[in-house]
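User: Can you model how uracil sits in this protein?
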Amino acid sequence: MTDHLTIVSHPLVQHKLTLMRKKETPTAVFRQLLREISQLLAYEVTHDLATSQETIETPLMDMQAPVLAGPKLALISILRAGNGLLDGMLELIPSARVGFVGLYRDHETLKPVQYYFKVPDQLNKRFCIVVDPMLATGYSSAAAIDLIKEAGAKDICFLCLLAAPEGVAQMKEAHPDVPIVTASLDERLNELGYILPGLGDAGDRMFGTK
Ligand code: URA
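Assistant: Here's the modeled complex, given as C-alpha cells:
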C-alpha cells in the first residue's frame, strides 16, 4: 500500500474476489458478488467523509448525532463495466449523483475516443469516485479522468476491483493526485491487454456476453 494505491485486504473482499475469478462462476453469481464487493469497496473509499453534528430526538432523549456533511458525492461510471460497481454503491449511497463516461479504443491510433459524456453539475464541489472494475493499461481510466477534470472535478478517487502494475503506473504518471483503491494488484497484462491472472473480461462476465 502506498498513498497512491490502497489494496483492500479485508477477508470478505478477498474471498468474494476469489469466487469471481473462478472461470466456472456463472453470470448471476458473478453479478451478485460484484454488487457485494462494490459495497465493501465503497465503505473503504468513503472512510474519510466529513460528518457534522445534528440534534435528534431518540425515544428517550435528545442527542447530538453525526450526519454526513459535504462535499456531496458523484459516482462516475466508465461504460460499460463500471455500471457493475455502480449499482451496489448506489444502494449504500443512494443520494450520490451519477455520471457516465463512454470511451472506445480507436483501432488505428489506439487512443481512447469519447462517445458519451454526461456528468452532474458542480463537479468542482463534489467528491468524485470514478469506477471501473479493471485497471488494465490505464489509458482509458486516465482519459476519463482528463474529461472529468475538464468538467471541473478536483477531488477524485479511482475505484476498481483489479489493477495491473502497468495501469497503476500509467495513472500515477497521468494523475498523481488521484488515489486508487482496489481489491488486488495482479501480476501483469498479457499481450492483448488482459490482466493476469485476472478474471477475464469483466463486462462479458457481468452481462453474459462474449
Ligand atoms: N478489461 C477486462 O474486462 N479485463 C481485463 O483483464 C482487462 C481489461
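A couple of observations from the model: Residues 81, 134, 136, 193-195, 198, 201-203 surround uracil (CB under 6 Å). The radius of gyration is 18 Å.
User: Helpful, thanks.
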